[in-house]
Amino acid sequence: xxxxxxxRVRFGELAGPLVHGSVFFDWQLISTQEVAAAFGYSFEEIxxxxxxxxxxxxxxxxxxxxxxxxxxxxxxxxxIDVGESSVDLxxxxxxxxxxxxxxxxxxxxxxxxxxxxxxxxxxxxxxxADACADRDPEVGPRTETDREAPLPSYSTSFRIRSxxxxxxxxAYFEEYPRFAGIALEEYLTEQGTSLNKLSDEKQPYRIRDxxxxxxxxxxxxxxxxxxxxxxxxxxxxxxxxxxxxxxxETNIRGITEYGCFDRTGAPVQFDEEMVDLFEP
Length: 280
Prior knowledge:
Distance between the termini: 47 Å
Low-confidence stretches: none
CATH architecture of the largest domain: Roll
Order of helices and strands: EEEHHEEEEHEHHEEEEEH
InterPro entries: HotDog_dom_sf
Number of domains: 2
Radius of gyration: 19 Å
CATH superfamily of the largest domain: Hotdog Thioesterase
Oligomer: single chain
Number of strands: 13
Protein name: Acyl-[acyl-carrier-protein] thioesterase
CATH topology of the largest domain: Thiol Ester Dehydrase, Chain A
Helix content: 10-25%
Organism: Natrinema salsiterrestre
Mean pLDDT: 93
Strand content: 35-45%
């Protein structure tokens, strides 16, 4: 189903000439709400009972081209697997010419007020099962890395305030790429440079392929720590392991592959100086 139809990219979604990486998460959240309503188990119903609706458990995404000003996007969303308490949704972001811009696969679980996973109502589970498409696209990081070289690590901490939280008093999951981006920009500052100095014709360090696993929600007013270990560096990809923790507990763990894009949103190689900042 089309969960977002022919929507023009807005100024507030941009970071420079292209959309911010977190906007893909935002479009997925809008799409999830549309799917939830269409299958008779809406966000509003779950929130009214004190639950956390369709919390992402595993997110795998790949960006093929970044949209920018003038682009029109459509999001098509279909269920591809369903369990007793979970549903896997496939999201495809397509531009006005039918070109695929991004692909994402998310496993969603609804959380009860006590923190346990709620089973899907029988009729909802059956409806998802009947609508499942037989599709298994390759998304997310392409390679495994062992971090054998002495590559850098960096981190930051900050308190989760109201601008970052959703109606369930938790951090929005589309904010997590921003949190990782804050840590990255602080690292660049420590290296004596900044995105503004490096970004001109090229747009470096934009999330391209990632797989994040969500272990527990990030609560309002908690101190969040973002730990980042660089796993691999070349002209195509900078691979970083992320771990987000609060109160001594891991909230999110995953791998992000950052790429470089030109001002039209097409992938290009990093310049040498952009790569050298992450070498031993």
